[in-house]
Amino acid sequence: MTSYTAPLADIRFVLNSLAGLADITALPGFEDASPDLTDSILEEAAKIAAGTIAPLNRVGDLEGAHLKDGKVSLPEGWRQAWDVLVEGGWNGLAFPAEFGGMGLPNLLNVAVQEMWHSANMAFALCPMLTQGTVNAIAGYGSDDQKATYLPKLVSGEWTGTMNLTEPAAGSDLAAIRTRAVPAEDGSFRLFGQKIFITYGDHEMAENIVHLVLARLPDAPPGVKGISLFIVPKFLVGADGALGARNDVACASLEHKLGIHASPTAVMAFGENQGAVGTLVGQANRGLEYMFAMMNHARQSVGLQGLSIAERAYQQALTYARERIQGRPVGWNGEDRTGIVNHPDVRRTLMDMKCRIEAMRGLIYKAAAAVDIAHHHPDATRRAEAQLLADLLTPLVKGWSTEIGNFVASAGVQVHGGMGFIEETGAAQHFRDARITTIYEGTTAIQANDLVLRKTLRDGGAAIDGLLADIAATADRLTAHDAALAARLGAATQAAKGSVRCLVGLPQREAAAVAVPFLELMGTLVGGQMMAEQLIAAQAAPSDRFLAAKSVTARFYGEHVLTRIDGLAQLIQAGAGLVMALDEDLL
Amino acid sequence: MTSYTAPLADIRFVLNSLAGLADITALPGFEDASPDLTDSILEEAAKIAAGTIAPLNRVGDLEGAHLKDGKVSLPEGWRQAWDVLVEGGWNGLAFPAEFGGMGLPNLLNVAVQEMWHSANMAFALCPMLTQGTVNAIAGYGSDDQKATYLPKLVSGEWTGTMNLTEPAAGSDLAAIRTRAVPAEDGSFRLFGQKIFITYGDHEMAENIVHLVLARLPDAPPGVKGISLFIVPKFLVGADGALGARNDVACASLEHKLGIHASPTAVMAFGENQGAVGTLVGQANRGLEYMFAMMNHARQSVGLQGLSIAERAYQQALTYARERIQGRPVGWNGEDRTGIVNHPDVRRTLMDMKCRIEAMRGLIYKAAAAVDIAHHHPDATRRAEAQLLADLLTPLVKGWSTEIGNFVASAGVQVHGGMGFIEETGAAQHFRDARITTIYEGTTAIQANDLVLRKTLRDGGAAIDGLLADIAATADRLTAHDAALAARLGAATQAAKGSVRCLVGLPQREAAAVAVPFLELMGTLVGGQMMAEQLIAAQAAPSDRFLAAKSVTARFYGEHVLTRIDGLAQLIQAGAGLVMALDEDLL
User: Which domain holds residue A94?
Assistant: First the structure.
C-alpha cells in the first residue's frame, strides 16, 4: 500500500514559469480564473487525489471490475469517490458555464487530471472518457443533443464512452462493420459489436452515453462511410427523464494485464430490436469528428504517462529512503543509510525525476497551446497555437507513454526483489502503464502521424519552425549554462539532419524509422523544456527547489539528451534495411 | 495459448560457427560427445520443450503454486513433465559420469536449458536451481556429502535450492542472521528465516536439498563469518534411505508479478528443535563458495533473458503474420496482408530478432569459455578462458536480462490492444521477464562487478584485452562489410574512451555510471557477435538462412550499435552529477 502526494511545487512551477498560466487566464472567457481560485483548485484537487482517490488504487487492482447477471460492479469505494467528483463539479472544470461547467482553462484541468491519473489510473479513465464525450457532443452535436446530454455529462451524473474498435477494426477503422439503420422517427437502430470499450458499463452513474461509429446502409466503403451516433444506455425522454433500457449490453469484460478496475467491455448493440441512436452532425463524417477530438484524447493518454511515472517515482523514492542495505560505494556518511545513497539507485531516481519534469513541461505546454488555439482573440495566434498543439500531440502521447513505461519499470528495479512482489504495489504501476503506449493509437501510429502527416506533407516546414524555437532556447540558455546550451544546440542540429533525411525518403522508408524519430523529437523537446525550466529557475538561485531544478536540467542533458546522436545516426542509416529481409526469413 | 518451436537452425549455427562446439567436444573428458550424439540431443530436447514443457506455460501462469496444509502444490501436469526430465537423464547432461551424469559440455547443456526456459521459465527454474546445488556440493562438499546427495540431485529425483536472502539481507549478504549451532554428533542445528527461496518446497521430488548460508556462534561479523550448510527436507540415513522430516518448513509463498508457478517460498528453519544440517567445506567460507558458483547461476539467468526474448519473438511474429489490419504504407503487394508488412511492426520484429541472435552469440561464447576453463589441457588457455568467462558473466546476466525485458515488451506492443489481454499470452512473457534483471544480483550489481572488480581493479587491463579482440573482429570484417566494420571499429574506440574515463574516476563516480557502461559493453560485444556471425555466414552466401544472418547483422549495426556513442558521451559527462542533489530534494 503506497500513498500519493501531489507534487504541487513542481506543478505550480511548470504552470507559471513554463506554460504561462497567467497569460492563459488573461484570455477572453477566463475572467473568473483569478490566481486565488486556480490556486485553491490545485490545493483542493491535491487533497481529493491523496485522500479519496489514491487509497482506492490497490483495492481496484485486487478486486477489479466484474460482470454478473448483466451488471458490472466496480470495487468497494469506487462510487463514493465518483460522487465526490460529481458533487465538487470537478468534471466540468474546463467546460463552458452554459452547460454547468466552471469555464476554466484546459491547462488547469490538465494539472487536476494529472493528479487523478497519478492517484488511480483505472479510476481516472472514467472522467477522461466522459470529458471526451462532452467534447464530441459540444463540438458536433445538435442543440437538442447538447441540451439533452451535456448538463448531465458535465456534472458527471452520466458518464460517456467511445465505441470505435471492433474485432477486425483496431488501428484500421476503415474496417468498421457496425450498422446503423434509419428509423421512421429520424432516429437510427444500431447493430454490431464493439470491443475494448473503456467504462462500457457500470452502475456508478444513472446513465451512460455511448458515442458509436457505425455505417449507414448507403454509406460508401472505407473511412468515408462512417457516421457517429449517440446511443444512451437508458433512453432519455423529451423532459429529460430516463426511460427504457436501450438495446445495448455489456457482453463480457476483458481480463487485462493492468487497470483491472477499469471495465473494458465487449458491447453488444442491437441483439434484439436494435439500439436506438441519434446521428451526430452529418452522415459519413464520423471519423472526421473523432479525429478532431483526437488531440484531447491523445494528450490525456500522454498525461497518463506522466502521472504513472510520478506515482512510480514517489513510491521508489520512499522505498529507497527506508530500505537499509549495505554500505554504499565510497560513502562517507552514517553507517545506516538508505539505498538512496547507493550510486546506481540515485542515478535511477535522477533519471526518473528529470524525465518526469521534462514530460510535465511538454504536456503543460501543449495544454496551454490548446487554450490559446481556442481562446486567443488574434486569429494568427490561434492558428499558430493550433499548429503547435498538432505538432506536439504525437510527442505528448507517443513519447510520454514510452517514458511512463520506462519510469514504472525503473520503479520496480529500485525495489529489488520486493518490486516483483505484488503486495509492494510497484508492479501495479508497471502493469497499469503498459496500456498507455497502445490505446488511443499505438506509438507507431503517433510516429506515423508525426512523420507522414506533420513532417513529410509540408516538407518539414512546421517541424523546422519547432526546431528554430528550440535553437532559440539554446541561444538564451548560453548565458545560464553554456555546456547544456551547446548540447541542446548540437541535438537540435542532429534533429535537423534527421528531418532533411526523412523528407528525402519514400513514405515506406520514412515510416520504418518513424518511431526512432518520435523518440528523438520527444527527447529533444524534453530537453528544451528542461532548458526553459533552468532559465526560469535561475531567476531565484538561492531557493533550494529552484537550485535543484538546475541540477535536474543538467542531469537530463548529460543522461538523456546524449541519446539523440545515436537516434540521428539510426535514422540516417537504417530506413532501408527494415524491410530488407524476405518475410519468411523472420 | 501459444506454441514454441526451438530455433534449432540458429542454435546449431551459433554452436558451430561462433561457440566452436567441435573444439569443445574435442577437449579431454568429452570423448563421448560425437556430432551424432550432440545433434540427437538437440533434436530430442526440442521435442520435449515444444511437446511437454511449453504447453504447461499458460496453465502454470493461471494456476500458480499454492501452499495448503503445509504442502506446496504445483499446477496440473507439472510433475509428469518433471518425470520426463528425470527419466531422460536430462538434469545430468553436463555432470560427470561418476555421479550418474552424461559428462557432456556445459555449452551443450546451455543450448538445452535455453529451450527449457523458452518453453516455460517458471518450470525451468527447478532444474536450474538443482544444477546449481549439484555444482556447490560437487565443488565443496565432502566425499560423504557427495555420495549422499549427488546421485539423486543429478538424476533429478531430488531437487535443490539456494537459501541466501533474508528480510534484512538482500543484496547485502553481510547482514545474514540465520544461526547454526554445533550438535554433539558433528552436525548443526539451524535457526532462522530465509525469503525468496525458489522451489523452496513442492511435492514433485522425493526430497529437497537446501543449501543454506548461516552464522556459527563464534563467527566474525560481516561477510567473513558466513558458512554454508546442507539442510535436507527429509533426513537421509547412512543407507541412503529417507528418514524423518527435518525442522524446515515453507511458511508462505509470495504473490508475484510473474513466474506464478515457480514457488517462491519463505522458509522457516528451526521453528522447533532446529533444522539438522551439515557444514559444506570449511567454516566461515560460505560466501566464497557461493561466489564461486555465481558464474553458473548468473549465466543461467542471463540465458533466461535470451529464452524469454525468443519466446516473445515467436509469439509476436505469429501474430504479426496472422493479423490483417489496414494497408501498409507504400505497400505494393496483396491487399490482405498481415501487419508484419507494416514498416514499424517489421522494424520492431527485426530489432527483436537481431538482439536475440546477438544474445545467443554472447551467451554461448561465455558457456564455451567455461568448458575451456575447466577442461583444456593447457593451464594458460584455461586461465585465459576463465578470465573471459569472468569478464563476460556480468554482460551475460546484466545485458541479456535487460534486453529480455525490452524484447518481451516489444512483443506486447506488436499485439496492440490484444497484447494487454491476458488470454493472448504476450503479457505473461512481459511479466515473467521482469524478475530476470533482479534476482541473482540486480543489473546494478552486475555493473558494479564489471566496473569496480573487473575494470578498475586491474586498471582496465582485462577489458582492454576484450576490446582488442573486438577490434580484431572489426578488422577481419572489413573485407566482408566495410560499413559495419567501420561502425564496430568506431564503437570499440568509444568504449576504449569510456574505459579510460572510468579508470580515472573515484569508485563512487565510476559506480554512478556503471549501468550505462554495462549497457555499452553489452551492446558492443553483441555487435562483435553479429559481426562474427556475418563473417561465418558469408562462407555460403547462397544459403537463404545465412544470407538472412548478414542482413540481421547489418540491422544490428544500424539500429543497435548506433546507441554506443550516446552512452560513451553519458559516461564521459555524467558521473559527477548523479550525486549532486541533496537527498531531500529528490
Answer: 9-139
